[in-house]
Structures are given as C-alpha cells and as structure tokens.
Amino acid sequence: MSINLIYLIAGAAMFLAAVLPIVLDRYAVSAAMVLLVLGMGIGLLPLPEGMRLDPLVIRPQVERITEFTILVALMGVGLAIDRSFAWRQRSAWASWSSTWRLLAVAMPLTIASVALLGWGLGVAPAAALLLGAALSPTDPVLASDVQVEGPRVEVPDEHDDDDGDGEALGEPVDEKDDVRFALTSEAGLNDGLAFPFVTAGILLASAGSAGSWWVGWLAWDLVGKVAIGVVVGVAVGWGLARVAFRSPRRSLRLAEQGEPLLALAALVMTYGVSQLVGGYGFVSVFACGLTLRAAERNHHYHRSMHEVVQRLERLLTLIILLMLGMAMTKGVLNELDWRGVLIALSLVFVLRPLAGWVSLRVRARGDDLPGGLSRHEALATAFFGVRGVGSLYYLAFAAGEHSFAEERWLWSTTAFTILVSVMVHGALATPVMRHLDRHRESVAA
C-alpha cells in the first residue's frame, strides 16, 4: 500500500466522520459501526512494510491516544450536562439519584461478575479482575447516541429579555430526559472510578495476596485519589470560570471574545495538576467541565467550547476506530477463544443489564421526580452500557505496569467485546431512544 493510497483512505475516512452523524441520524446504524467495519476492510489490504498493529508492540501509543481521547470526551460530557449540582442541596443529590446508583451498585456488580466469570472459566484471578475493571465503565466516547446532545441555551421569544451578552432563558432539555442524563453522567464519572479496580488487578498480579495491600488500596486508591481528583477539578474549573466570565480585565474575559480553546486548555491543565498531586485525572477533568458549565449557565460560550471539544473527539474517535478495525483483521482477535466470546456476550446481554436493573429498581425513585426512571427507562439505561475506548486505555495502562501472561487473550477478549457492544448498542440506540421519546411525549400530553 503506497503512501498516496493511505492519504486517500484517511481523507475518505475523515469525510465519512464529518457526514455520517447527520446521514445516519434516521437509521439504526451508528457512525462507530460504519467506521469500525471500514477499518476492518482496510485491514484486509496489504499494509506498508514496518506498520505494526500488534497491541503488545504499539502499547505505549495505544495508551497515549486513548488516554487523550477519553480526556477530551470527559470534558465534552461535563460541558454537555445541563442539570446543575448544588452539593449543599439535598434535592440536587436526589436529582442525580440514577447516577449514584449506577456508580455505587451497577459498576461494582459488573466488575465482580465479569471477574468471577473469568476466574470460573480458568483465567488467573489478577487477569480476571483487570478484565472486569477494564470492561466495566460506560464509555463516554462511543456512547454519544444515548447521551445528551450538548449544552442547551434556550433562545428567548419576543416576550423574554435578552441583555445582549448571549444569555437566554429556558429549561434545560436534559431535565426531561433522565435516561440520557443517567448514561451521560455515569460515563463522565465511571471512567475515573474504575481506576482503583484496575490498580487492584495490578497489585494482585504483582504483590500477591490482598492481605498485604488492601488497607492502603482502600484508603488511598479508592478514596483519597478520588477526593483529590474532585477537589482539583472543581478548583481549576472555578478559577478558569472566574477569569473567562468575570475577570476585571476585558482581555482575559474569553467568554466575551468567544475563544473556545479554553476548554482544551482547561482539560490539559486540570489533568496535569491532578496527576502531579496524586489524584485521578479523569475524575478531575469531568469535575472541571461540570464546574465550567455551572458558571453563567445560559451563556452561549458553553456551546462554543463544547463544539470545539466535540469536533476534536470525533477526529480522535475516527483514528481509534479505524485502527481498531484494522487490528481486528490483522491478528488482534487471534487469541479469542470460547471463554472470551462467552464473557463478551454475557457482559453485553446479561451482566451489565442485570446489574444496572438492580441498581435502578431496588427502592426505586419515583419516575415523576428528577432522577427517577420508569421501568422501561430503567431497562434502557441498564442495557446501554457501551464498552469502548476506556477499556483499551485501562488494558494498555495495566500492561505497561505489569506483565500479564494472558495479555494477548485480554486484548482479544476486550476487542471482541467492543465489537459486540458497538454493533448491538449501535443498532438499537436509535429505535429505543425514539420509542422512549415518543412515550415521554404521550405521557406529558
């Protein structure tokens, strides 16, 4: 394959990434499905000599590009959520009820069930725990079809007053859609909250029995680093919001200038600070995005920031999906066996839906209240736990920290799980979400 052909394929793929979200809006086909299949097709072509797609060879590159893609997606998710979170108000905590349930109940149940299933099938305990942790988060990158669309700034009608600086009145759209809100907020937080369990898998493989490390892991990895991550994210977001919206110097009020690159500066700065002080950078970036969104909530600047982040995320996703698809037809699935197939199918069709259903329906919050879900909405929320880029990052990170004997099998199983998730969830997302929208409208009428 010549370099000119590579340019041609890359250009065509970028064009598809730009038009597919619009073209496929009416159909039960997601852009991720098309890009993954396209990558698999490209992988059947002869690649340039020296171009390797072996995840064990290019592991550092996989780790870095997936890490940055997740960071971009988390900032986008934080900016997209319209529902406020006033932590001093009990009603605010209650309106996020579905999020806390998915994080505190569904995610640990998913990790435990996948790990136990893998262990029962003969996978080493450490590798089984790592697989459960890597496959547990709902992915903020590939779950866009079931997430809120972005920050909504309602345009006032002729009876509303507009002071001319871009503010507008209106009720945020996601306040009416608890399914999309639950999946968006879950995806924003569980990528960071899965990290302690990935660390536990690494410790179990390297240090052996949990008796020698579980206390420190519980205090620092599970609690301390999460708390630091939240504090750093809120602090950086608050400081940047003060500068962008309310600085006494007009040259620093980026909101008035409409400079959207603040979002990228915020995510890089937040991640760097959090990692330096020992927090979880993923948690920090999402918290920073939420804090920025909370400042001057109806200002058009939020939409500008979200758009630039979304476009960068789309480009990065294009690269990852094409490379993953190419890798699938170049050998990454070679170590897949019946155990990996069983784990992937069980996770997508049984384990995650069941864990999500239990978390949302036990002592369920009334569906007429913010954060409450009806039976149909709870079932949809439980089912659409999309696996994706986060799983690749966690596996690459763990493999860089410790050598797992089952590493090639882990890559094959993870890649197959993502393939199943992209195809199944991508095909069902549009019809299911439209059905829920129609049902919600008929109830409100």
Automatic annotation (TrEMBL):
It is found in: Cell membrane. Residues 157-172 have a biased composition (Acidic residues). The keyword Transport applies. InterPro entries: Cation/H_exchanger_TM, Na+/solute_symporter_sf. It is a multi-pass membrane protein. Pfam families: Na_H_Exchanger. Its main location: membrane. Residues 152-172 are annotated as: Disordered. The chain crosses the membrane at residues 6-24, 31-48, 68-87, 99-121, 193-215, 222-241, 261-294, 315-333, 339-358, 378-397, 409-430. Residues 15-434 form the Cation/H+ exchanger transmembrane domain. The keyword Ligase does not apply. Keywords: Antiport, Cell membrane, Ion transport, Membrane, Transmembrane, Transmembrane helix, Transport. PANTHER family: CNH1P, NA(+)/H(+) ANTIPORTER 1. This is Cation:proton antiporter.
